[in-house]
């Protein structure tokens, strides 16, 4: 039992290591803390591809967090900080890249595909409707008899059941 | 016309397949540098060998390779003999000792030979940040006017030098010697 407790305590310590991307910064205000959190979550770590710089343990992400903290403390705006990083690392660092000629497909692609899907759906629906309206070559009398026959057979079937 | 409609799914499939096939051979780790065709960022840092400050102005006059390295960087060790060889053939190579211990850097250079003309010491990584460095080794091609013209991320081996860097370096040398 005592052993188990020791193992658990050790595991708890290891948990702390796994979440090491937590720095101790003191902020002037809660608003500044929120801005720091927002910026580090919106910006992408250049080294680790699919992590933001808030989550990453890469040394470069740590440096960038320190830099963002420094700039925030110096009173720079969010846009200034993002521009500063884009100037050095390119649009890659932004999870939301700006709308330019090169990113047009990225931004509008999904909407275009969705619209295309609706167009195809519309065409199919319209075509089906047209098919249904085509008469089946029976006169009004014949149509009525057909309906009666069908009604009778289905009535018979329910009685037999 | 009706027949063509049946070909649409096939065409869509072929389009997507071509797109994805191309994607197989793209390296997502390779970021296009934001600094191409921009001047080398301003800095004033001391050298690895002595305290004499080096600035971006010292990089002008001759085309050069600016190599970001550190003794902590395993890949830099693989790259080092190649840099020695390139430097021996007369290529102008500058170093940026990125986030490193200066004593370790000096020992490294005396142990493995020093290929660098100028060697900038950047212990805080400030110049590295301005250069958009995200992992050593990285190598920049800088022209005689101090403009960054090309960036290679990763090890410079014989093949990278021969196929990617050497022709571009030669072009910069030709540009510099042209009136």
Automatic annotation (TrEMBL), chain A:
GO process annotations (BP): cytochrome complex assembly
Entry's family note: Belongs to the CcmH/CycL/Ccl2/NrfF family.
Keywords: Cytochrome c-type biogenesis, Heme, Iron, Membrane, Metal-binding, Signal, Transmembrane, Transmembrane helix
Cross-referenced InterPro entries: C-type_cytochrome_biogenesis (IPR051263), CcmH/CycL/Ccl2/NrfF_N (IPR005616), CcmH/CycL/NrfF/Ccl2_sf (IPR038297)
Gene Ontology terms for molecular function: metal ion binding
Domain of life: Bacteria
Name of the molecule in the record: Cytochrome c-type biogenesis protein
Function field: Possible subunit of a heme lyase.
TM region positions: 104-125
Gene Ontology CC annotations of this record: plasma membrane
Signal peptide: 1-20
Domain CcmH/CycL/Ccl2/NrfF N-terminal, first and last residues per copy: 9-150
Gene, per the UniProt record: cycL
Coiled coil: none
UniProtKB/TrEMBL annotation, chain B:
The keyword Disulfide bond is assigned to this record: yes
Assigned keywords, A-Z: Cytochrome c-type biogenesis, Disulfide bond, Redox-active center
NCBIfam families: dsbE
GO biological process terms held by the UniProt record: cytochrome complex assembly
Pfam families xrefs: Redoxin (PF08534)
GO molecular function, a single term: disulfide oxidoreductase activity
UniProt-listed SUPFAM superfamilies: Thioredoxin-like
Protein name: Thiol:disulfide interchange protein
InterPro entries linked to this entry: Periplasmic_diS_OxRdtase_DsbE, Redoxin, Thioredoxin-like_sf, Thioredoxin_CS, Thioredoxin_domain, Thioredoxin_ResA/DsbE_sf
Superkingdom field: Bacteria
Bilayer topology annotation: Single-pass membrane protein
Primary subcellular site in the record, as a coarse category: membrane
GO cellular component: outer membrane-bounded periplasmic space; plasma membrane
PANTHER family from the UniProt entry: THIOL:DISULFIDE INTERCHANGE PROTEIN DSBE
Domain Thioredoxin intervals: 34-178
Localization per record: Cell inner membrane
Similarity-based family: Belongs to the thioredoxin family. DsbE subfamily.
Coiled-coil residues: none
